[in-house]
Amino acid sequence: MNDRPHVAVVGGGLAGLAAALDCADAGARVTLMERRQRLGGLTWSFEHHGLHVDNGQHVFLRCCREYLSFLERIGARRDVTLQERLDIPVLAPGTRGSPPTIGRLRRSGLPAPLQLAGSLLRYPHLPLARRLQLGRGLTALRRLSLDDPTLDDVTFGDWLRQHGQSEAAVATVWDLITVPTLNLPAAEASLALAAMVFKIGLLEDATAADIGWSRVPLGSLHGERASVALAQAGVAVRLGARVQSVRPDPIGGISIDGAHADAAIVALPHDEAARVLPRGAVAHQSRLAELGDSSIVDVHLFYDRPVTTWPLMAAVHSPIQWVFDRTESSGLTTGQYLAVSISASDDLFAERPGELTRRIGAALGRLLPSTHEARIVDSLVTKERRATFRAAPGTASLRPVAQTSVPCLTVAGAWTDTGWPATMEGAVRSGRAAASAALGALQRIPVTKEVA
User: Fold this and answer.
1) What is the pTM (predicted TM-score) of this model?
2) Is it true that the peptide bond before 100 is cis, omega within 30 degrees of 0?
3) What three-state secondary structure class fits 79?
4) Concatenated DSSP letters for 282-298?
5) Are strands 101-106 and 211-214 parallel, antiparallel or unpaired?
6) Sign of the CA dihedral 324, 329, 330, 334?
7) 298, 55 in Cβ contact below 8 A?
8) Which of 32, 91, 372, 395 is 20 to 30 A off residue 265, Cα-Cα?
């Protein structure tokens, strides 16, 4: 007989990985089922002409404490870099043959919310009068309560206009942060989630927005490191296992496609979870599709020589949003590999990769004149149509808590009610919340005895 409770985790993304490890660490027997032949969910890598290429660029901030704890747990903390102090070069293309304009968003040693005051006052992409108006918006944001449900009724863009923020300020400052974190521009994003990003990231802790990124391929950072950690924790991992149904078991516990578990955690995307879960398991289950999707496109450019020394940079007044140097992580030894990440990119999916590469390459040339002396020797485009849920107004009411209406059945995923947007931090938080709820329920319900 086996007295240890058996927990089944459905889904091997960051949420499922975090949940499985927490349950195993608490003494449960854990089985993790993933439909793909790999772990890591939307953070994965593939081989391209002998190099390691990530499907997309995933960064984190110093305030992502649960994600950093997850990296420690899987033995991957040494594989990431975290800035000592926030520093973002922000470029705008020159006009009529003039060189690009370069600004910096760089924090000082002052306490929050003053840490960016100096760089914003010197910010060259806005007239001085517009720069001074940024303080009005930041002060108003700081006064908002994240517990106010009405924040989810309006867009961040409408709120910014009501607080004196010009279109130029939105384009060159506010959306510089809103688009990559919410995967929507301010004009479409929920004020509730935007307020959370700015308050937690910039207005309460001066160090919170320092940026971190992986020094190794994401497939290694998450999938491979987690695979080792799961094995060491005794978790049984079943790859290529597509779950069709999760239901209450008549004998108690949960039935996953007919197999019994004492508890189950469904860590799938919102549309798949709605299909797999028993009807009425979570609030508004029939409306989960309304969470929608927002896409991300990455253009990968391989140059025959180095063209920049910056590990990352942002752009305004350009089709380019963010650029990351992925030379080291890819294994490239000659030249330089730059990944251009374009969030909220639904309109780019119909564009052919060759045309998109030519257009982005030309745009990068207007930002980095050094590319004119270099040659693009290889390129590719990756697209994630369903990269995140759509963080529009009305989102909060559709995001369920971890515990479902079925005892010992919980849900996880960045789309659940974490209080965070769809980020790696949100995914890990959701997995840990689901594990805690499942373990708590098991303490209240007798475990079904099984023959070991």
Assistant:
1) 0.96
2) no
3) helix
4) STTGGGGGGG--EEEEE
5) unpaired
6) positive
7) yes
8) 395
